[in-house]
Amino acid sequence: MRRVLWIVVCLAVVLALAGPAFAETGQDAGQPPGGQAAPAGSGETIGGIPVVSPGELGNKLNQLGDIAYKQMSPITDMVAKLSIAASGFLLIMVLVLGAGIVRRVVAALFFVALGLGLWYNAPYVVGAVKAVAAWLQS
Questions:
Q1: Which pairs count as long-range contacts for 135-138, CB under 8 Å and 24+ apart, including other chains?
Q2: Which of the 8 DSSP states describes residue 30?
Q3: In the predicted model, is pLDDT for residue 24 greater than 50?
């Protein structure tokens, strides 16, 4: 827990120090140095990279997320099955090791179930968040 807190504090300090750097240059993050960004769809390039619209970027990111989700589902299932099998083995080992490990086994089973629930319901949660965001914007 201390490591996570330390990482969060370090990240906050780095971001706090990086903020004034953008303010001193007088430009927004993501703008090319020394000028305004070219309008999307104009066929122009900045540094050899074609300009894209925010909609195109959003579509590509959605496609990337869908591909990653489809590729990771079998791996997630296998890890969950192995975790449940290991927890079952530890429950059997309670007879040998004593009852002190039961809390850890039950906690492991709980977190495996929570992780699986979050994994399989992620599309629904994202859809609900998008629906609330659309409702708030209207």
A1: none
A2: T
A3: no
Each residue's pLDDT tens digit, 61-110: 888 888 888 888 888 778 888 888 887 787 787 777 777 777 777 788 88
Q: Would you say residue 115 has pLDDT above 80?
A: yes
Per the DSSP assignment, residues forming a β-bridge with 29 are none
**How many Cα atoms within 13 Å fall on the side-chain side of residue 79?**
12
Angle at 30 between CA 25 and CA 36, to 5 degrees: 70
The amino acid sitting at 22 is: F
Count Cβ atoms within 10 A of the Cβ of residue 23 and give its class: 0-12 exposed, 13-18 middle, 19 or more buried. exposed
Q: Are strands 49-50 and 45-46 parallel, antiparallel or unpaired?
A: antiparallel
